[in-house]
Amino acid sequence: MKRHLPHVLGCAALALGAAAPARAQAQQAPAIDLPGAQARADATVKQMSADEKVILTHGIMPLPFLPGAKIPAQAIPGAGYVAGIPRLGVPALTETDASLGVAWVGGLRKDGATALPSGLAQAASWNPDLLYRGGAMIGAEARAKGFNVLLAGGVNLMRDPRNGRTFEYLAEDPLLSGELVGAAIAGIQSNHIISTIKHFALNGQETGRKYVDVKIAEGAARESDLLAFQIGIEKGQPGAVMCAYNRIDGAQACASDWALNTVLKGSWGYKGFVMSDWGAVPGVEAALHGLDQQSGAELDKALYFADVLKARAAGDKAYAARLDDMNRRVLTAIYAAGLDKNPAKPGGTIDLAAHAQVAEEVARQGIVLLKNNGALPLAKTVGSIAVIGGYADSGVLAGSGSSLVMGEGGPAATRSIGGDGPFAALMQQSYHRSAPLKAITALAPKATITFRDGRYIADAVEKARQAQVAIVFATEWRTEGADQPDLSLPDGQDALIAAVAQANPNTIVVLETGGPVLMPWLDKVAGVVEAWYPGARGGEAIASVLFGDTNPGGRLPVTFPASLDQLPRPKLDGADWVEPNFGGDPAPGKDQLHADYDIEGSDVGYRWFARKGLKPLFPFGFGLSYTSFAARDLKVSGLSASFTLANTGQRAGDDVGQVYLVRRNGAALQRLVGFKRLSLAPGASGSATVTFDPRLLADWKDGRWTMPAGDYGFALGRSATDLGPVVTVKLPARTWKD
Fold it and tell me: Which UniProt keywords apply (predicted)?
């Protein structure tokens, strides 16, 4: 179907034209009649009584383990429920987490779902079309289970690699993050359900997440984290935006007049609604500051958006007008997505086999080969293999928190750190039932394969010494609600890897991590494979890469630092006095926690490393292959570029062309401005054209985008640190507002 630009629930069109060409997946999304949805919303609001106007403005968590829980019969166990208005034909909102699939919620629904790989794994594909497919898949499962709102679309940039939710998010770059999240959201909403984009905004750490106050200049925010959201909204057109827990320059993000009114609804012209994160509403005044819906009100200090809001609206014209607008926005999203005309009902059919294939394909495309001295791919005729560690006999690691997804039968193995509170199940270490050991055995049926769990290094070393190849599975678990204390592998795994590599020079390390980790043993091992949290079919995907059935084509969406000293904040803000209990409580007498993002400003990740002249352990955009590629013929004309990628090796494989702005009027800077993944047969070449979003060439100054006239230098790279010749073009000066 034809999709109309400018976008439907997002911003007004850029003065310079569309930021990027419409991708193939956009044609698959259902057409949305925004003017018609807004007109219907206006008509419905006029028919509402005073009582009805505070129905859509708040929701509950329909979970029986919450104290005093009163759950309507039509609610489905999940993240949230917002009652409908049957008299006016307005459906209830049934909400579930999250970006990686329909959340497990401790198994309350007695069903399972297909788990996509982690957000970082998806982003490592650098493939928007693949993320659209993944989004369409999890949206279909949500719909089949009766949900019509998916709390997906995590797009916060990785400002600190220790962030416990890094695994849920996508990248450290606004273009890559925005393009990918937009594609995923469009896929989700192709099922006539609403997707959110979250957590708006500058939600960079879990430590003290409900009171950490982020300091950042407006220009830096607009050029980085906010730009990722802006691009994602333009591309995906989510029906809802979920605001964050943290504070922004003193104001709670869910009550930030600047973020919600000035930027989102003002500058960007967003027409959907803003829902709170669960337990993130400071008071009824948040309504005037741009919040449209109080989610999971049981977790707040009070229910503000019901009787309290109704009373304010009865006596204050500002609240009355705001209340009408709140309802108008929620209804616009409902009508635009067709929730009323295409109701989601529990008991729908799910093609689990087909969905598992989608999850496996995402995992295969997102696995990144970080080191290979020729040991990989493994020959299927190998005589003996020692598989060590990582619960490789049971499954593959999953990140925890509200995004946790589990298939039929639940987790393969668990280790709980969540105590005995109502959300303890969200903070348990869980594994998907896709055992790498089984998949490896299937691909090397004649090999003698042994497994040791790695708890005893001497035992693991002995088995490694006896085998031709040793494969160590190393895990680094992350969860919502707690950050990592550092970037080491926990439980003595660094020592285990070093000892195994000393015993067997053909040691391959498979990393299942929620973000970057340090590798003190890197020079001792033969190969390193970053598999992230690889999802429902992760074991099969990992084995496929190890034995060469899949040629690894993933590229890092985040920088792996060589040490904590390279970070803008070597010491995590609040780590010394905040308790790690699902967001953290301050020590007695301490309630002020500040994060200074002005240190790096808009130079997040690889931009910071370039600015400071630092050499990372592995750079943004990096990834090896079993074949070789050449990138050439970069040509730039105006706001577009073309280039050629050639497979110069003996195996079919995928490569990602990455175009960077590296110089502007003689000043060095670095910004990803375009990318394209191509699949190439041996000896084949392919060309690609990318269109530059002009905001990536500009700075935000004095309330507008400013692009100075002069010489702009671009380079085609294999990573942020491996760049080809600079191509310089002259571009005219331009200024424009969003």
Answer: Hydrolase, Signal
